[in-house]
Specification:
single chain, 151 residues, 9 helices
Length: 151
C-alpha cells in the first residue's frame, strides 16, 4: 500500500515538531528560521516541493530527523534529493557541498533562501563581532561558489 505524499502543511508541522526546543545562534526558536527559508523559497517562485525541502533543509544535519526517516517518508524523491543536497556532511569540504547543491535540481533555490536568511543583517546584529564576521565571510564564500549575487 502506497501512502499519499505529505502535504506542505503536514511537512511544516512535522518540521516544527522535529526542531521543537532548538534555537538558532541568536537564541531564537529554530522554527523561525525554517519559516523564513520556506517563505524565501516561495517569494523566489519556488514550487511547493521546494518549500517542503526548505522546511526540512536542516532536519538531518541538526539530527532533528534521521536519514532513515527521510528515506521512508511519504515525500516525492526530488524533495528528498533536495534535502540531502543541502545537508552538510561532517568534515565535508564546502566545495564538494556546493557542487552537490548545483547538481541537484531545485536545491539551489532552497540554499539561496537559507543563505539570505542566515546573512540577514538584523539576524547577524545580535551576534558578537568575531562570530558575525566569521559567518558573514562563510556565507559570502558559499554564495560565490554557488554563483549567487549579493543577498
Amino acid at each position: 500500500m502506497t501512502s499519499r505524499p505529505l502535504t506542505l502543511v503536514e511537512v511544516e508541522a512535522l518540521a516544527r515538531t522535529a526542531h521543537e526546543g532548538q534555537t538558532d545562534k541568536a537564541g531564537r526558536p529554530y522554527a523561525e528560521h525554517l519559516a523564513a527559508v520556506a517563505e524565501g523559497v516561495r517569494l523566489r517562485g519556488g514550487s511547493p516541493e521546494q518549500q517542503a525541502a526548505a522546511w526540512l533543509h536542516d532536519a538531518i544535519e541538526d539530527e532533528a530527523l534521521s536519514l532513515t526517516w527521510l528515506d521512508s517518508a511519504a515525500l516525492p524523491q526530488h524533495v528528498k534529493d533536495m534535502v540531502l543536497a543541502v545537508t552538510k556532511r561532517p568534515g565535508e569540504p564546502v566545495e564538494q557541498y556546493t557542487a552537490r547543491i548545483l547538481a541537484t535540481p531545485g536545491a539551489l533555490l532552497v540554499k539561496e533562501a537559507d543563505l539570505a536568511h542566515n546573512a540577514d543583517p538584523v539576524r547577524l546584529s545580535v551576534l558578537d563581532d568575531p562570530t558575525r564576521e566569521r559567518l558573514s565571510a562563510k556565507y559570502a564564500y558559499v554564495r560565490s561558489l554557488l554563483g549567487l549575487t549579493a543577498p
